[in-house]
Amino acid sequence: MKISDSMTAAINDQIKAEFDSAYIYLAMSAYFEDCGLSGMAHWMKKQYKEEVEHAEKFIDYLYERGARVIIPEIAKPKENYSDALDVFKTAYAHEQYVTSRIYKLVDMAVEEKDYATQSMLKWYVDEQLEEEDNTGSIVSKLEFLGKDNHSLYIIDRELSAR
Ligand code: OFO
Question: What is the pLDDT of residue 148?
Answer without folding.
Answer: 87
